[in-house]
Amino acid sequence: SEIAKKVEERIKDKWQEIAEKAKELLKEEAKIPVNEKLWNQQISNAIEIVSTWLEFFSFNTFNNVKDELPNDLKKMQEEWLKFVGEAEKRTNYGHFYALTYELLGIILTQKSRLWKAWEEKPITDKKCLMCGRRNALIENSLREGYRYWNGEKWNKASISDQLKHTLALKRGERLCAVCLVKRLYRRGIFKKLFSLKDEYLPKPESTVDIAGRDFINNVKGDEDFHLLKLVDIELIYPHEWESEEKRESSIKELENLGVKERIYKKLSEWWNTYKEPNKYYDILMKDGDRIGKWLSGERWKEDCEEKGLPNFEEFLHPAFREKIKEWRENGKKKGEELIKTKRILTSSHHIAISRAMKDFSLYKVPEIVEKFDGFLVYAGGDDVLALFPTDKVLDAAYEIQKYFKKDFYEANINGKKRRITGLGNKASMSAGIVFAHYKWPLYDVIEKVREAEKEAKNKYRRDAFCITFIKRSGEILTAGGKWEFKERFDEIMRMLSPSDEKRRKLSHRFVYDLLDVFRVLKREEGWEESYISILKAEVKRLLKKKRYENRLTEEDTKKLFEETFSPLIDEYMKKKLSLEDMGIMLNILYDAYRGEER
């Protein structure tokens, strides 16, 4: 218990230290007298830690309390002890590691239910637009610029251009103490805490940076673009130049600097050369499937496939396995019984799983996120949260889950390739993905991606992905599928080529007409087997009808149907997933990839 208390104290002390550095920066450099009462309240309520501890079970302890244990845990322990010698039972506590771990998990779950219900009453009349949960303390007002809450009212703040860049609040954005600390941590506080040079600081990224990544990569070497980014990155979009609010703020700022006409002329040339930037970005949330069951040694079936820790025989060398089979005792085939027994968690196995997940999140995930032009928010164990350009997210998500289930793989560690042990092919991950307009509130996007991840695990039964598309109009589309469907969706997107008309082979009308077919057939007849032939006939007809400028030959069309569409329909049927999802998925991907709505 003393160790747990010390760990909790150290975590909270470090958080307070980071928050104090943020407050110092605001007071000393921005001359903002932070409202201490509300600041301290928000900072102190930001972290709640639950811990538990239990003395290791021994043979005697187990015998004394076994009838009070849950039946499944009692049975697990008794099954295991059948294969352990009498002396070994009494001296090696390791045989009770799994039982101790399971009971700790149960206690921790019960303690977690006692968390304080967290709620902050309205005080400043403005909610934080990042988390959506706390009162805002500082804002970049549309009309008055930077303002802060002094405890009674909102006051105007005089902030230097350098600090404006550090705070990086967009026009209309407002933050609470906790989200402000997070924002500053990636910028100024890193410098103060660790005395780092600018080149070692993490680069700040906005939703516009992510959405317009391809466009920005083409122009980022231009000095005028750097100036534009400091003033207002949203001006890379043509429609923002028509905004009354922008004319009164950032466009006027460019005018005062004497660069407005020059920058607009350059942007016009870039729009003609590189096309307008995508208005949508996406956020990816991934999580390992049933990791708790993995650790407990439990096995289960999912889509007719065995999941979880392998039985003992799968760990053993074939020659050793055959030798164990010869073990007999009192006429019983103890060896055969042993190798069919599920492996329970041991300390060494627990360490191996923890190390595998640590290496995966620390080394492989950042490598994959960088490869696909993403921005990693966090990666810890089997959890991942990252932002990507719309056309990169499925590739990144697919590759992350592929490496999660490898036996071994290579990763770059301190500039060198190193072989890493993975979790193996019985492991799996599910993902929630949300495509959103760069102006949509981020806290709502995060809430939606949590919901999508849950849908991937529940509705689509794990080892799956669920995608939600929040259109600027407010319309929301959701669809999902299994990871093995991805390559077929990729092939269809190549034919549709949303962002490059020169490569397009299927008309964009195809995705909308196909969805109509799915919905009509579903509404009238459902998805009985006999109607699949009707659906496939309609898909064939649409493929022939919607060929773009005859770039698909008859042979190409036939091949596309037989090798992509027909198998994809069959896979949705086999997995007992809604075929309407297939149509919605194509609709989502097409609109999100091209960055505009129908």
Helix and strand layout, with pairings?
Layout: H1 2-28, H2 36-44, H3 59-65, H4 71-81, H5 86-91, H6 97-112, E1 138-141, E2 145-149, E3 154-156, H7 161-167, E4 174-175, H8 177-194, H9 207-211, H10 213-219, H11 223-232, H12 244-248, H13 250-256, H14 260-274, E5 280-288, H15 291-296, E6 299-302, E7 305-308, H16 318-325, H17 334-339, H18 347-371, E8 375-380, E9 383-389, H19 393-404, E10 408-413, E11 416-421, E12 429-437, H20 442-458, E13 464-470, E14 476-482, H21 486-496, H22 509-525, H23 532-545, H24 554-574, H25 579-594
Parallel strand pairs: 12-13
Antiparallel strand pairs: 1-2, 1-4, 2-3, 5-9, 5-12, 6-7, 8-9, 10-11, 13-14
Helix pairs in contact: 1-8, 18-19, 21-24, 21-25, 22-23, 22-25, 23-24
Folded structure, characterized:
The longest helix has 27 residues. The protein is built from 25 helices and 14 strands. The protein has 4 domains: 130 residues, no CATH class; 71 residues, no CATH class; 150 residues, 2-Layer Sandwich (Alpha-Beta Plaits), CATH 3.30.70; 114 residues, no CATH class. Helix 21 runs antiparallel to helix 24, helix 21 crosses helix 25 and helix 22 runs antiparallel to helix 23. With 598 residues, it is an alpha+beta fold.
The average pLDDT value, as a whole number, equals 87
- Strand content of the residues, in percent? 5-15%
Going by CATH, the homologous superfamily of the largest domain would be Reverse transcriptase/Diguanylate cyclase domain
- Kindly report how far apart the N and C termini lie: 59 Å
CATH class identity of the largest domain? Alpha Beta
* Shape estimate: globular
Instruction: Supply the number of structural domains.
Output: 4
CATH architecture descriptor text of the largest domain: 2-Layer Sandwich
User: Fraction of residues in helices?
Assistant: 40-55%
Alpha-beta classification: alpha+beta
Q: Main sheet: which strands, in order across?
A: 8-9-5-12-13-14
Biggest β-sheet: count, sense, barrel?
Answer: 6 strands, mixed
How many strand units? 14
